[in-house]
Structure prediction request, 386 residues.
Amino acid sequence: MKNKADLQAKRLELENAMKSIVENRAESIDDTALATIDSLKQDMVQIDREIRAIDELRSVAISAGKPVEAKALDAKTELRSAFGGYLRGKVAMKDLEKRAVTVGANGADIVPEDFLRELQETILEYGVLGGSVRHITTADNGELLIPVVDDTANAGAWVGEAGAITKADFATSNITMNAYKLATGIEVSTELLEDSFFNVESYIAKALGERLARTREAAFVNGDGASKPLGILADPKTVSTTSAAAGVVDSTDILTSIYKLDPSQRAGAVIYVSDDLMKDLSLETDTTGRPLLQAQAGATPADPVKNTLGGYPIVVNYELALVAASSESCFIGNPSSYMVRDIRNVTIKRDDYTGMGSDMISFFATQRLDGKTVKANNAFCKIITA
Prediction:
């Protein structure tokens, strides 16, 4: 029988083997090494699946250290089965709510953990910025004050024996996080729901998750704060630079702009660029003809190209504008300086009546959240094309 410790040890062994192959070949690699790396990655993916399966079994245990009881697993299975029946129209909402409370889900939270997890993972996966920012989840929807501390103006002092020590208070302020409603819907044919061979639960989770992710990402980057999060580009705390040449943003503009960030914010900073700017940067070379963008060793099949510029990760964000006069096609900063507040979980509802005339069933997902930069120092810098 496999255990988590053995699986984690095996994964570390595979990871070290892959790193060794890459490091020994510097910037060149042959087909044999690539095939070996691909095989190691596939093994790591399988190990990750097995570790997640162990964690899911443990999560339904009555308490830490106690074995998982069959009735607890049966209750979870019953809820998942009932929710699948609800999506397919075989279980009424009132019956589903009763089962959810009976099996001990969170109150009347009728969305099973695995469905909700897949939906949330999809939101994070398809959100370039949303997957790396700070997240907090609150149970209520009232205003939430986030304290912001700026102590960069204070320092210590040299004092003599028995000398007086000067003290200074933190320079603090508050940022208010609200709760804005985000919603989307999807129509599914009755025939598709009745097809037992089609994983409708996964399809709906991914479709709704991707739609929510796109809308969230757009707000985190460009949101004006009116009934939606305040995006990084629209935030007056975000500093800016202008490109040196008209209609062009190049690597020099980006590397110069990094120093507009407060020194405390440069560690962990990421360069976010539009798709066409990434194309332009990929064509830039140094005096010896080598590309300025450097590929990282940690590329995966899901994210095949990871690049750095000046030692900082550089990634594409599709919410940024094309390079053009007065456009904002790049920003730089530490994503942990942006906070997203989620209110409870995503809510899923089924509508059997609106599309009755065409035999279509609608599903709606709603979520309440807010997002803002929560650093007083220069946490983000955007580049405006001259």
User: Anything to note?
Assistant: The mean pLDDT is 79. Residues 273 and 330 are 4 Å apart (CA to CA). The longest strand covers residues 338-351.
